[in-house]
């Protein structure tokens, strides 16, 4: 019963996709919308095929993924550490509060040109941008997660003889993990945004660079191909986080909510 | 215990007062507990009854060292308490298990903190799980267990530490009557086997009488303090379901209720406001 229900939903989803492509194709073929602006789905698919067939895409994809993964890891670790530290130290948290709020409110993509000046046009400037984006998402969630730790569980652990480090290891961190993971989903996206925007603002390689280049040639099909490729890999990275999450949070009856942070 | 002067109480709260910041009145204080002196002898089972919201949990938090009283001192076997009460085990009113740990992992938390090696702790943990009637549920997570089973895990988690003083805050109040009587009897069996000093909070007078050597009644808040102490010299070992039918039980119940009635009505009136 459930199975057939799921199958039907899947079929409907595929149908929607086909209708969308068909509509896109029809609109451009009959000249209702200009190919110049919206491209042509078949040419986009052809472009993607060509990129993979010739192998030229792998270098660019590799660069973008490398930037994403490094920014994701460094930003998350930093967010985790600072989040734990500030959540457990009220004085530090009070001191840092206005600065963190300021940095968070700042539209940080605007840092891209500055990072390009500081770190050059290579991968470093993209990683730096990614880190500033990832950091805040993870930081706010860890901070919130630690603040939400059940005071009874905490008191119980103290009665059972937990030292400060043991409290951190066996209560604060596990109890904040659900918050951390819900933030990691958003963080992967942020790392990707950082890499692509960075490339788009100035670089010599990466999928963002490909898109920039296609745009320069008014090659709308190339732009779409790049966007689709990015979407696809963002989904894959998100799925990887999901798998790790499912393994580590198997004890959990329900999902935790996320607090977001703007890019 | 050999060499121990039985005149030294296992736990003594002397002249305790606790002030909290008042709700809805910034800068003001609310005196939850005042002039409270409670002593518990080694091996004695003492229940504290009082109207809801009067400050029972507050007193227990003071006894555990989790809450520093605004006034007064706590002594544990004659030693003045500073910081956490290391001689005490505390079973909380609310669920305090770690939801990310299995039942067995929860039970062995204390030994693990104390640095016991994994295999030994596991053996001890399984032993305690069996003693509280949870053999076979070692791998279950708390949210898969019923309320009664979670209470058993919490009990094992506390008893595995072999505390000299046991603090229990309405541990069975959320359970249905049958489960509750079952667990009360199990608690009495465990206590009978190895007499610890118990400070047991409840708002259920029958439970208090059925379990205890002594019942202390508290006044309604604010400024809660003991208003009466009643020795319960019913025979042991007891069965909590049967002991209720004894004439002596009814007499004690009537006597304590007489003292408590007015306070409960006061507490009820405050709760409504
Ligand atoms: N941390 C706190 N801050 C402010 N007020 C508090 C605090 N802890 C307790 N109180 C107040 O002190 C009073 C006694 O609380 P306590 O939890 O000890 O009552 P209780 O007798 O255990 O109640 P119950 O039967 O509902 O468990 C209550 O009025 C409560 O609002
Ligand atoms: Mg209470």
TrEMBL record, chain A:
<feature type="transmembrane region" description="Helical">
    <location>
        <begin position="223"/>
        <end position="244"/>
    </location>
</feature>
<feature type="transmembrane region" description="Helical">
    <location>
        <begin position="190"/>
        <end position="211"/>
    </location>
</feature>
<keyword id="KW-0813">Transport</keyword>
<dbReference type="Pfam" id="PF00528">
    <property type="entry name" value="BPD_transp_1"/>
</dbReference>
<keyword id="KW-1003">Cell membrane</keyword>
<keyword id="KW-0812">Transmembrane</keyword>
<protein>
    <submittedName>
        <fullName>NitT/TauT family transport system permease protein</fullName>
    </submittedName>
</protein>
<feature type="transmembrane region" description="Helical">
    <location>
        <begin position="69"/>
        <end position="88"/>
    </location>
</feature>
<dbReference type="InterPro" id="IPR035906">
    <property type="entry name" value="MetI-like_sf"/>
</dbReference>
<feature type="transmembrane region" description="Helical">
    <location>
        <begin position="9"/>
        <end position="27"/>
    </location>
</feature>
<keyword id="KW-0472">Membrane</keyword>
<feature type="domain" description="ABC transmembrane type-1">
    <location>
        <begin position="61"/>
        <end position="241"/>
    </location>
</feature>
<comment type="similarity">
    <text>Belongs to the binding-protein-dependent transport system permease family.</text>
</comment>
<feature type="transmembrane region" description="Helical">
    <location>
        <begin position="127"/>
        <end position="146"/>
    </location>
</feature>
<dbReference type="InterPro" id="IPR000515">
    <property type="entry name" value="MetI-like"/>
</dbReference>
<keyword id="KW-1133">Transmembrane helix</keyword>
């Amino acid at each position: 019963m459930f199975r057939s229900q799921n199958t039907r939903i899947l079929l409907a989803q595929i149908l929607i996709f086909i209708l969308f492509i068909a509509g896109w194709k029809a609109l451009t073929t009959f000249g209702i919308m200009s190919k110049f602006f919206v491209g042509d789905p078949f040419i986009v698919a052809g472009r993607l095929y060509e990129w993979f067939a010739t192998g030229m895409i792998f270098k660019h994809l590799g660069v973008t993924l490398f930037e994403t993964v490094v920014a994701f890891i460094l930003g998350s670790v930093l967010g985790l550490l600072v989040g734990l530290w500030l959540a457990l130290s009220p004085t530090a948290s009070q001191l840092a509060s206005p600065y963190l709020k300021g940095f968070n409110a700042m539209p940080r993509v605007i840092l891209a040109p500055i990072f390009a000046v500081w770190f050059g046009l290579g991968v470093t400037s993209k990683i730096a941008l990614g880190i500033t984006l990832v950091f805040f998402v993870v930081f706010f969630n860890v901070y919130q997660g630690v603040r939400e730790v059940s005071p009874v569980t905490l008191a119980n652990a103290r009665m059972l003889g937990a030292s400060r480090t043991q409290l951190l290891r066996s209560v604060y961190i596990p109890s904040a993990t659900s918050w951390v993971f819900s933030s990691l989903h958003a963080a992967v996206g942020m790392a990707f945004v950082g890499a692509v925007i960075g490339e788009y603002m100035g670089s010599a390689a990466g999928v963002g660079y490909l898109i920039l280049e296609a745009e320069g040639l008014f090659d709308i099909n190339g732009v779409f191909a790049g966007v689709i490729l990015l979407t696809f890999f963002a989904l894959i990275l998100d799925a990887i986080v999901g798998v790790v999450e499912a393994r580590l949070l198997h004890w959990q009856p329900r999902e935790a909510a996320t607090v977001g942070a703007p890019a | 215990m050999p060499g121990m002067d039985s005149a030294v109480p296992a736990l003594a709260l002397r002249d305790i007062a606790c002030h909290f910041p008042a709700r809805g009145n910034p800068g003001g204080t609310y005196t939850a507990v005042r002039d409270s002196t409670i002593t518990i002898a080694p091996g004695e089972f003492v229940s504290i009854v009082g109207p809801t919201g009067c400050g029972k949990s507050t007193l227990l938090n003071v006894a555990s060292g989790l809450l520093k009283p605004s006034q007064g001192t706590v002594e544990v076997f004659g030693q003045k308490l500073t910081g956490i009460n290391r001689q005490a085990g505390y079973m909380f009113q609310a669920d305090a298990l770690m939801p990310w740990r299995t039942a067995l992992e929860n039970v062995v938390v204390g030994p693990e903190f104390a640095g016991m090696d994994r295999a030994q702790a596991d053996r001890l943990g399984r032993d305690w799980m069996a003693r509280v009637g949870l053999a076979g549920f070692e791998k279950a997570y708390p949210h898969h267990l019923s309320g009664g089973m979670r209470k058993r895990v919490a009990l094992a988690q506390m008893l595995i530490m072999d505390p000299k003083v046991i603090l229990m805050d309405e541990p069975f109040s959320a359970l249905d009557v049958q489960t509750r009587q079952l667990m009360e009897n199990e608690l009495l069996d465990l206590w009978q086997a190895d007499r610890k000093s118990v400070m047991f909070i409840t708002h259920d007078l029958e439970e208090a009488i059925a379990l205890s050597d002594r019942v202390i009644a508290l006044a309604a808040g604010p400024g809660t303090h003991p208003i009466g102490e009643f020795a319960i010299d019913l025979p042991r070992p007891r069965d909590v379901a049967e002991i209720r039918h004894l004439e002596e039980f009814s007499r004690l119940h009537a006597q304590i209720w007489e003292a408590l009635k007015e306070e409960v009505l006061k507490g009820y009136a405050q709760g409504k406001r």
